[in-house]
Specification:
- The complex is a heterodimer of chains A (326) and B (330).
- By secondary structure, chain A is an alpha/beta fold.
- Helices cover 34% and strands 23% of the residues of chain A.
- Chain A is built from 12 helices and 13 strands.
- Chain A has helices at 47-54, 83-92, 101-104, 111-122, 127-140, 146-150, 159-171, 189-206, 217-223, 241-246, 251-259, 298-301; strands spanning 5-16, 19-31, 36-40, 62-64, 69-72, 75-76, 94-97, 177-181, 209-213, 226-231, 234-240, 309-313, 316-319.
- An 8-stranded mixed sheet of chain A has the order 7-8-9-3-10-11-13-12, with helices on both faces. In chain A, strands 1, 2, 4, 5 and 6 form a 5-stranded antiparallel sheet that branches.
- In chain A, strand 12 (309-313) and strand 13 (316-319) form a beta hairpin.
- An 8-stranded mixed sheet of chain B has the order 6-7-8-3-9-10-12-11, with helices on both faces.
- With 330 residues, chain B is an alpha/beta fold.
- The longest helix of chain B has 18 residues, at 192-209.
- Chain B is built from 10 helices and 12 strands.
- Chain B has helices spanning 54-61, 88-97, 115-125, 132-145, 162-174, 192-209, 220-226, 244-249, 254-262, 302-305; strands at residues 4-17, 26-39, 43-47, 69-75, 80-82, 98-101, 180-184, 212-217, 229-234, 237-243, 313-317, 320-323.
- The chains are: A alpha/beta (326), B alpha/beta (330).
- The interface between A and B is large, with 43 and 45 residues.
């Protein structure tokens, strides 16, 4: 079976005034239909850049490597340049939900108009049909009084409702692949719980593939089937969610888990990961994690190892250099 | 000597609101009839969703919001400061003793000042030190306590990561040698690996400098870890208050229970569904009558549903206070 999405050897670099910086280094991953892939990592680890590459939403100073492939439906979407091709991945086959629902709606245009407009761009239908689908979608995501909300502006909706409307809008074109970039981070916990349950139901119903980006491992544990842990532009560990969270092999994954306050064990001390994320301008050579690794092997500390994932148990991939580190 | 450092008595804070210039002025009660006592040396947590009045309460305690009703008293060693009748001279003294750490370390630091100047500014504004040498010494001293590298003092904030910036903000808040700190969502903008570091630093500084914190957060697992006593706020009211272990092991208010169950479990096999609260927090402009939580309560008693009950905290076990109306709700 072919995968819904296949990313091979993706490098992303940005040309900035201070020099060329590496945002993504040799990322490969696959996603099947109906599955949720969680991407976790700290800010600056390249989670959002990976997702934006799929829709080619990175800014103009972005440089992709030549042998990189992002394959959806046997087509390398990285090679798309024409408006018509780009339309297919921007809102057609792929939709994205952003973190800040206030910033993602135009403030001076009614929600309904924005939903109808994008539907008509992607699907051959008239205004009336688009309106019916939009209102139906708003109902589906649990917005009461959908017809009234349809004619309101984003500022008239509360945070949770705005995020629901955003989800409704992203789903109305029936995308095959949904990119959710920190969709619950700006929400309160009680609203987060509502939105997570809603997304789980919808993923099941529409049988989409979802990339769910978050820095919250708790959210990942609840929604994802597979997890990829990113650090400074590289995937350092990847596998089924159960395996990664219960049997983490990479010191960074273990560090993230230890740093998390556990409500069931209040006596456990909070263990931060020592040091700071290095600036992308001076990315460590060889293993990127070696400057913060609690117990690196000699070769690793000296920068003599190469990065690359190896399979330690079925489906569980870890960066080979860190398998032997503390 | 008083064992408390701050007493808040029947405090209400309201804001004027006018829909447009023709309509009548309304009062919005952001904080409603709050009574808390913060013990010296404690780590007092305040949790609740956005719009629950946490920040307004914190700011009122610092004298940054006008008090509409009730009072706030700060008990210093020699004298008490009553914020409702404070003179501007006393207010200046009070500012040295009570300080605020902000949420977003990216917005809180001026990009045009060096770290040294940022930390030294309160000393100069409050005229605490008399010479540049003295100022420098105080700055170096507090920077070392906040685990900042001394050579960082010459640099500008843009050179630092979020965690380092938050340490600079903490140093700036502590340089006037305050006794009481309001930390408003001070770790919310940080990554988990850095968050643990800042929380440990706050704990360490509390021991070293004898501080008392009012720690405002929406993250219950963080609060559970650092705070001794926790108050849960909902729509301007404190609905439950207890020592943190008691609160987290034995929550009595249905809102607290819902909040606790909403924390996503790190165990993928633990799919226990959160107690899903219906709807969203009502607008403070038009709060429900009687118990403010009744519109979202999963299982309200009959009287509660009808809005016949008055709110008010009741002690259900030693030091564990719950809103009287919700003790019997589901």
């Amino acid at each position: 079976m072919t995968h819904l999405l296949e990313i091979n050897n993706l490098d992303v670099k940005f040309d900035t005034d201070e020099g060329r910086i590496t945002a993504i280094d040799n990322v490969s991953l696959t996603l099947d239909q109906g599955k949720v892939l969680g991407i976790v990592g700290e800010s600056g680890s390249g989670k959002s850049v990976t997702a934006k590459s799929i829709m080619q939403l990175n800014p103009g100073n972005t440089i992709y490597n030549d042998n990189a492939e992002i394959i959806i439906d046997d087509e390398n979407v990285l090679k798309f340049t024409s408006k018509n091709d780009l339309k297919k991945i921007r809102g057609g086959k792929v939709s994205m939900i952003f973190q800040e629902p206030m910033a993602s709606f135009a403030p001076a245009i009614k929600i309904g108009y924005q939903m109808v407009e994008q539907l008509m761009i992607h699907k051959p239908m008239d205004k009336k049909e688009a309106k019916n689908i939009s209102i139906d979608m708003l109902n589906r995501v649990g917005i009461a009084d959908a017809e009234k909300r349809f004619n309101q502006y984003a500022f008239e909706l509360s945070g949770g409702m705005r995020q629901r409307a955003m989800i409704a809008m992203a789903l109305s074109t029936m995308p095959k692949l949904l990119l959710a970039d920190e969709p619950t981070t700006a929400l309160d916990v009680t609203i987060q719980a509502q939105v997570i349950n809603l997304m789980k139901d919808i993923i099941k119903e529409f049988n989409m593939g979802v990339i769910f980006i978050t820095h919250d491992l708790g959210v990942i544990a609840q929604v994802a089937d597979d997890v990829a842990v990113m650090y400074l532009g590289s995937i350092v560990e990847r596998g089924p969610v159960n395996e990664i969270l219960k049997n983490p092999k990479h010191p960074y994954t273990r560090g993230l888990l230890n740093a998390l306050p556990d409500i069931n064990n209040l006596d456990a001390p909070l263990k931060p990961i020592p040091g700071n994320i290095p600036s992308p301008l001076d990315r460590p050579s060889a293993c990127v994690f070696r400057t913060r690794c609690p117990d690196p092997t000699h070769d690793c500390r000296e920068g003599n190892t190469e990065m690359g994932l190896i399979e330690v148990s079925p489906g569980h991939w870890v960066d080979k250099c860190c398998v032997n580190c503390g | 000597m008083n064992e408390n450092i701050v007493s808040v008595n029947n405090l209400s804070v309201s804001f004027d609101y006018q829909e447009n210039f023709l309509s009548k002025k309304q009062k919005i009660k952001a904080v409603n009839n709050i009574n808390i006592k913060i013990k010296k040396g404690s780590f007092f947590g305040l949790v609740g969703e956005s719009g629950s009045g946490k920040t307004t309460l914190g700011r009122a305690i610092l004298g940054a919001n006008k008090i509409s009703q009730g009072n706030v008293i700060f008990h210093d060693d020699e004298k008490d400061y009553d914020l409702t009748s404070i003179t501007s001279k006393e207010m200046k003294e009070y500012r040295k003793k009570a300080q605020l750490i902000f949420q977003d370390p990216y917005a809180a630091l001026s990009p045009r000042m060096t770290v040294r100047d940022i930390i030294a500014e309160p000393l100069e504004v409050m005229k605490i030190t008399n010479s540049r040498e003295e100022t420098d010494e105080r700055v170096r001293d507090i920077a070392a306590k906040c685990r900042l590298n001394l050579e960082h003092l010459r640099r500008f904030p843009h050179a630092f990561s979020g965690g380092q910036r938050q340490r600079i903000s903490i140093a700036r808040a502590l340089v006037s040698n305050p006794k009481f700190i309001v930390a408003d969502e001070s770790v919310a903008a940080l990554d988990v690996s850095i968050q643990a570091d800042i929380l440990n630093l706050l704990k360490q500084l509390q021991e070293d400098l004898n501080l008392t914190y009012l720690f405002i957060s929406h993250d219950l697992s963080v609060v559970a870890h650092v705070c001794d006593i926790v108050a849960v706020m909902y729509l301007g009211h404190i609905v439950e208050m207890a020592p943190s272990r008691e609160l987290f092991s034995n929550p009595r208010h249905s809102y607290t229970k819902a909040l606790l169950s909403s924390i996503p479990s790190i165990d993928p096999e633990n799919k226990s569904k959160a107690i899903e609260l219906q709807g969203e927090i009502p607008s403070a402009m038009n709060p429900p009558s009687g118990c403010v939580f009744r519109t979202r309560c999963p299982n309200p008693t009959h009287d509660c549903k009808e809005g016949n009950i008055e709110m008010g905290l009741k002690e259900v076990s030693p030091n564990h206070w719950v809103d009287q109306c919700c003790v019997n709700c589901g």
